[in-house]
Amino acid sequence: MVALPFAGGGALAQRVEAPVPYQVRSGDTLIALSTKYLSKKEDYQRIQQLNRVKDPYRLPIGSTLLIPMELLRIELVDGIISSFRGNVTVDGQAAAVGMKVRQGMKVETGADAFVTVRLPDGSAISLPSQSRIHVQRLRRILLTGGLERRFRLEAGRSQSSVKPFRDSGSSFQVTTPLSVSAVRGTDFRVAVDPSGERALTEVVGGTVGVQAEADKTETAVPKAFGIISTPSGSEPPVALLPPPQLLAIGREGEDGVRISVKPVEGAKSYRIQLATDLEFQQVFKEAVTDADSASFTGLGSVPFFVRLTAVAASGMEGLPATYAFETRVAALGAGDGRSERHPSRPA
Predict the structure, then answer these.
(1) DSSP letter assigned to residue 344
(2) More confident residue, 332 or 262
(3) What is the DSSP letter of 37?
């Protein structure tokens, strides 16, 4: 998993994108390639000049052509709302499972809301409460089949789970007014501080390349580290807080539970999420608490997973701990208020 060249918001967006490499195959000519894959057929002349090709009808098989991104034909692709809860809108319209999300649209969550947008290759981007993204790019390059995905996080937080790329023409970026985070396949989170003066990138898996608006070079941020970008540049990466341990889960009322967390040194608060799937793309309850426990009601008899993270004083969210429960909420034991079975963390 390596960092990608950047093209993001603000000044970053003005930088010229790297040309797309294409390996010549049997039967290829510049004329044929331009007819099939370029927006304008006559643009083959630019490719001829850039690559110093003498004869546009004769190309050495196996050689590599560099083709400017802006010349290539693309086709728009769709993401879909795979799950949501609460007040979620897509371009101002109420969300629905299966609703298409396209390039140029905005997805926004209200209070106590959550949404996951699944992409054509199985990757996904999720938003918790009070968050908003602008889908700047969601398209396929016809020449390479590569997917371009660029999301601008305008408010709140996002979590991305990105499948490893099958080709060099694909990209996945989450930009903010202060930074660009780019990956080739990993799990990471991006947040915008309410002050607008900080953007946080937290790496759960793999490596993320992060470039601040004020920086000329990117910083490779490895797993279990995070980085803060400000108007003056990026601070050095710091280690994320470790995964919290779940102390107990006890029944509360007829259809509720109380979840207790073992305190983590350096934590100012904890995020507790409940989901029906192990990937946490179907979150149905969430709480951020300064205490070491939180209560959830209205659970019914739904089996669930619990994900815990500790939040540092800097606002950086730590590594997650995930626990699975075989016992349904309705079957939790009374007595001392704890469940009849101990939770187990999935492998």
Answers:
(1) B
(2) 262
(3) H
Instruction: Provide the percentage of residues in the chain whose pLDDT is more than 90.
Output: 72
User: Does residue 135 sit in helix, strand or coil?
Assistant: strand
Indicate the class that CATH gives domain 246-331. Answer: mainly beta
Under CATH, domain 16-69 is a member of which superfamily? Answer: LysM domain (3.10.350.10)
Query: What global pTM score does this model have?
Result: 0.83
User: Hey, what CATH topology would domain 75-239 get?
Assistant: Jelly Rolls (2.60.120)
Confidence band (pLDDT; 50, 70, 90) for 214? confident
Joined together, the tokens standing for residue 3 give 């960092």
Is the dihedral angle over the CA atoms 270, 276, 279, 282 positive or is it negative?
A: negative
Q: Do 288 and 270 form a contact (C-beta atoms < 8 A)?
A: yes
Range(s) of the chain covered by CATH 2.60.40.10: 246-331
CA atoms within 13 A on the CB side of 283: 27
Question: Is residue 300 pLDDT above 80, yes or no?
Answer: no
Taking the C-alpha atoms of residue 179 and residue 24, their distance in angstroms, rounded to an integer, is 36
CA distance linking residue 60 with residue 203, whole number of Å = 42
For the chain, what's the residue count?
Answer: 347
- Structure token digits, residue 246: 């779940």
